[in-house]
Amino acid sequence: MDVLHTQLAALQHQLDFVATKPIDWKFYVQAFSWGVTLFESYLLLRQYPLYSKTEPPTVLAGHFSPDAFEKSQKYGKDKAKFSLFAGLFKQCLDSAMIQFGFYNWAWDVARQVLASFGYGTEYEITQSIAFSCVLFFASSIPTLPLSIYQTFVLEEKHGFNKTTPTLFVTDLLKGWGIGFVIGTPFLGAFLYVFKWAGDRFVPWLMAFLLCFQLSMVVVYPTVIQPLFNKLSPLEDGDLRTRIEALATKLKFPLKHLYEIDGSKRSSHSNAYFFGLPWSKHIVIFDTLIKESKAEEVEAVLAHELGHWYYLHPTKLLCISQVHIFTILALFPAFLHAPQLLRSFDFSKEVSAHPPTIVAFLLFQMILTPLESLVSIGLNAISRHFEWQADRFACELQEKLGSAEMHDMGDRLGRALITLHVKNLSTVWVDWLYSAYHHSHPTLTERLKALDAFSAKRASAEKKTT
């Protein structure tokens, strides 16, 4: 532990300039946040002309009817327009908040609220929680019309919305309530670790965040999600028999198999698993069951089990820990930099002893351009994992010695096509737009890879016969 703290102290020495040099951090954040937004807008403009194509890629020509492809293109075009406007609107809002001292105002409002209850500035954690609530509501309300438009205009226009106004408001209030119930103690504990551990907070905060992440793996699907959707045991039948047999052959620790009423809000489809290493639960959207054949849903689940087989969730968790460690290791230099707060219009009194929550928030803003680069790398890793999971499904025949799974790759391909057709997913995708935004390969890339896997296996079988 001492070696770790020595290395972290050496890093902080290299970052002494943060507290000593007169850097205009506000200008830096404004410039780079606008740079990221304009780059994302540029990517949308690269992607937008592809929505004018009148025919799908050759590999999909036999799977998309002219009408389905036209609907897909119109949906993609409308989503792109909305994304462009929403991105610029949110950036203008964020930029105005930064420029006109909104964060200083929010901190002062939190102080005044606490003072009215007889609490002084020595209650920093309590004031930080109040500050976060002010920020949340003040930044959420102006963007609420975007959510309303997306749900009741954009999704409604293209036949996906199943959310009623009452359900929308109920979900919104539930989300706010859950955020308060979970976020308040989390933030309090998060800030307490800083106060308790002092400058040696990094390993302790890492441990706290890891415990929180692992607990949410269980809490979210078992406690939070049922507040929004109903999870029912999957009915007995061909699909259940197939999935349970596949799980048994793979020694997947399946405990529960659920169907979720995703159609309550949207027509989009999905399937996933969650749980602890020794107890897993599979959840399948009712829309997926309705729109696909049992053998195709089985293929989708085979892909998902490929993620489990190759420990992809565990690997992503480890990668996230490295990412979090890097952020926390850099943070102390910004925590002890009064001029950082002065750059964002905080008073001399507040800046002299920077509140942890304020310094961390500003630090996150400064990291914006770096986080954009990190997201590209994470997307690349995620796409690699998707390739592996697809290949896993194709190789089940060999892995399990099960002849009835010889066509699993073909079934997965058909299921992916069905999902894309029903979801009106974009099939013409600009490579740079995809690299930045997509955690999954495009449909055409996945189908070509599945064909390559099948061809390679057929070639191998010929050599052995």
TrEMBL record:
The free-text cofactor remark is: Binds 1 zinc ion per subunit.
> CAAX prenyl protease 1 N-terminal domain location, by residue?
47-230
Q: Which residues form the signal peptide?
A: none
E.C. no = 3.4.24.84
Sequence intervals crossing the membrane: 125-154, 175-195, 201-223
Required co-factor(s) are: Zn(2+)
- What is its membrane topology? Multi-pass membrane protein
Question: For the Peptidase M48 domain, which residue ranges apply?
Answer: 233-452
Task: Enumerate the subcellular locations listed in this protein's record, separating them with semicolons.
Answer: Endoplasmic reticulum membrane
- Where is it mainly found? endoplasmic reticulum
| Residues annotated to bind Zn(2+) | H303, H307, E386
Keyword annotations from UniProtKB, A to Z: Endoplasmic reticulum, Hydrolase, Membrane, Metal-binding, Metalloprotease, Protease, Transmembrane, Transmembrane helix, Zinc
Domain of life here? Eukaryota
Q: A single GO BP annotation from the record?
A: CAAX-box protein processing
Reaction catalyzed? Hydrolyzes the peptide bond -P2-(S-farnesyl or geranylgeranyl)C-P1'-P2'-P3'-COOH where P1' and P2' are amino acids with aliphatic side chains and P3' is any C-terminal residue
This entry carries the following GO cellular component terms, namely: endoplasmic reticulum membrane
Question: Does this UniProt record's set of keywords contain Hydrolase?
Answer: yes
Question: Active site at which residues?
Answer: E304, D390
The kind of enzyme this is, by top-level EC class, is: hydrolase
Q: Which GO terms describe its molecular function?
A: metal ion binding; metalloendopeptidase activity
Role, per record: Proteolytically removes the C-terminal three residues of farnesylated proteins.
Q: Family per UniProt?
A: Belongs to the peptidase M48A family.
* Name recorded for this polypeptide: CAAX prenyl protease
The organism encoding this protein is Serpula lacrymans var. lacrymans (strain S7.3) (Dry rot fungus)
